[in-house]
Amino acid sequence: MITLTHYINGAQVAPINGKYMDVVNPATGKVYAQLPLGDEADVEVAYQAASAAFPLWSKMSVDARSAILSKIADLIDQQLDELARAEALDNGKPLKLAKHVDIPRASSNMRFFAHAITQASSESHFMEHEPAINYTLRRPYGVVGCISPWNLPLYLFTWKIAPALATGNCVVAKPSEITPYTAYLFGKICEEAGLPAGVLNIVHGNGPSAGNPLVSHLHIPVISFTGGTATGKHIASVAAPMFKKLSLELGGKNPNIIFEDADLDLAIKTTIGSSFANQGQICLCGSRVFVHRSIYETFRDRLVEKVANMRVGDPFHEATQTGAVVSEAHMNKVLSYIELAKEEGGRILCGGHRVILEGENKDGFFIQPAIIEGLPYTCRTNQEEIFGPVITIMPFDSEEEVIAMANSTVYGLAASIWTRDVNRAHRVAEELKSGIVWVNCWLLRDLRTPFGGMKASGVGREGGWEAIRFFTEPKNVCIKY
Ligand code: NAD
User: Fold this and answer.
1) Which residues of 408-421 are buried (b: 16+ CB within 10 A; e: fewer)?
2) Choosing a second label site near 175 at 20 to 30 A (CA), which of 254, 263, 431, 481?
3) Which one of 3.30.420.40, 3.30.565.10, 3.40.309.10, 3.40.30.10 gives the CATH number of domain 254-446?
4) Ligand 1 atom 40 nearest Cα
């Protein structure tokens, strides 16, 4: 049994209230760690430490800050194996996914913003007739709050922390209580990299105990949140009346549109990943697959044949393609949507049931990836986020029809289009109400691009200059001469 600690003021510390909660390994169903159930008192100590560190950190040269963030990236690379094992252990994802995606991306996040900040500049505006010049100062806010979810734990934790720190803010961060292990290890890495005490503080605990005091803290003016839409709505209801600056990265119900002229081999191969990678628990996964009627049966049959044979198993086995979903509660939620789909008239073409493995994985939370057809695009199964290894598949006849179906949910995070017709790709991309559109690919990420969702998928954008701007406050200075 591991006992995890907060990382506050440069030290690993126990919760002030002495309370802990269980952390479960989803592939075995067994408790493997005790997590501090931090509360308002820990958040306050973390805030005080961050506030005290702010003058030093914000005035440190950009080169010096950048060097420390780069060192953190180097240490993540050096500890790749240990971090990937930790991620697989508490999330249930295949170890090879953690090794090839989660942890390398966490180090890229740190390195990207370490470099980006050395290139940042602000605008000036010249007024010819006065004459006068305006210049914009961009300064860090002080102490900012970062809250992250369980699906890509270290990847999304660092995606917020890196730009917040690079711009000179100090941070109080709360990782998901369901997958806290790599955030705990990250605190140790920051210590090793020489990050000054108090610059980053990691407070563990659940949403009500540790998240809420962070969001409602009087002196934390900025909150960057990634998680569910319902939580985002609650956070906005607390933070907006306090006039906090908010970035909300929320849920999705992403369409994957396959036109008749698509490269079918590539579209099928990529659709397997875009539907079921990380057990379908990536906010960018396509969960509604729309296929042109002329190729519908061919595409469906080829996809079902491959998905029905996907190997569900121990995250630590090399051959495993699908690991465990993150928790028992989440498994039950996903399975309840399979029942709902049946009630709504859906046919389960493959999977959709719990898988009971042998040996130490016998109590793990495994689901065989499911494909469902025969549902109207308006039903609940097709409108609500399931966030598991479940997709629906539907035929369409025309571009207009598929655009209307794709845009019919409250969400607007990501979409994929498969076509060889470049004009159609541009037309459809333009019409989709989606913050990100991939054409003939999925999850191809350039960290300079704006990242985020429309409608109930979020407010604001992360990535590149968007993140640098989010974490800095602009001030215009106007000089007449
Ligand atoms: P969640 O909303 O339950 O929790 C996210 C974080 O918020 C956790 O750290 C949690 O402890 C905290 N939290 C919960 N209640 C809180 C409160 N009242 N105040 C402050 N913090 C609180 O989400 P989850 O189940 O961890 O993650 C899955 C969701 O995240 C899915 O909806 C998924 O689509 C979404 N997601 C979105 C993106 C994106 O970039 N748009 C990326 C990943 C995941």
Assistant:
1) bbebbbbbbbbbee
2) 254
3) 3.40.309.10
4) 249
